[in-house]
Amino acid sequence: MVPSKFIIVTGLSGAGKTQAMRSLEDLGFFCVDNLPPTLIPKFAELCAQAASKINKIALAVDIRGGEFFNTLFEVLSEIDDQGIGYEILFLEASDETLVRRYKESRRRHPLSSHGEVLDVIREERNRLRELRGRANKIIDTSNMTVQQLKEEIASVFADAAGTSRLHITVISFGFKFGIPLDSDLVIDVRFLPNPHYEPPLRPFSGNDRIVRDFVFASPVTTEFMQKFVDFVEFLIPNYTKEGKTTLMVAIGCTGGRHRSVALANRLGEILNKKDLHVTVRHRDIKRS
């Protein structure tokens, strides 16, 4: 199986390759940093094997490879011969920006053997000129924040990779067991009618129709659910616009067995119908 997306991330040291790789990883890419170019064809071959499930790949290749980096063009020709399509993402920034970043981070430039950072930046820029000319996408990060770079990466590669920009997890829980630590939104539904106090319903959970019907028979639940869905649907495009890639919506009741489970399932059903990437989990359903 030929990888559906093969991206080679390169560019000037300090221009944001690390953040770009993190953003691609968030988009579902299998990412490898600083792989020697000579190993790329073999790596691509392994990923193309029928048993491999890796079909979105991002490799960071740059001047840190030393002498290995000089073989990159030869390697790219070999990949072409294998029939594997690839894109080159080239990151750059102005000399002034790179000098400032190196001074702020107090890190040494890969080509530096002395303190003249500007000289080695210009040397690297010159060595990468031909590679820049072959790039499919060039991003100048001089005036970008980390968040803005993340948004730019998502806008370029999210849809092409067949990856939803926002992965949503809806989790039910019981407040008596504590709030999930990685929650983005925490919704307390303990104001809704409680099946726990109905003896025939107590042994069941929100996964069972008898409990679900009881919970949603209340006009309060119906009204709340409509407002809640509207709220979540309002947030999703705005979170996506800001470059957020994961969202955890935690819905809690007392024990995490009845009300929260029923509402988490319903929210998941509604969002899934809108072609969003949604996972529903019930943390405490077996603990109450």
From TrEMBL:
Q: Which organism is it from?
A: Pelotomaculum schinkii
Q: Does the keyword Acyltransferase apply?
A: no
A Gene Ontology molecular function term of the record: GTP binding
Q: Which Gene3D superfamilies match?
A: P-loop containing nucleotide triphosphate hydrolases
Question: Highest taxon of the source?
Answer: Bacteria
Q: Please give the name of this protein.
A: GlmZ(SRNA)-inactivating NTPase
Q: Could you tell me which residue ranges the RapZ C-terminal domain spans? A: 167-286
So where does ATP get bound?
A: 11-18
Query: InterPro entries, per this entry?
Result: P-loop_NTPase, RapZ-like, RapZ-like_N, RapZ_C
Residue limits of the RapZ-like N-terminal domain? 6-158
User: What are the alphabetically sorted keywords of the record?
Assistant: ATP-binding, GTP-binding, Nucleotide-binding
**Binding site residues for GTP:** 62-65
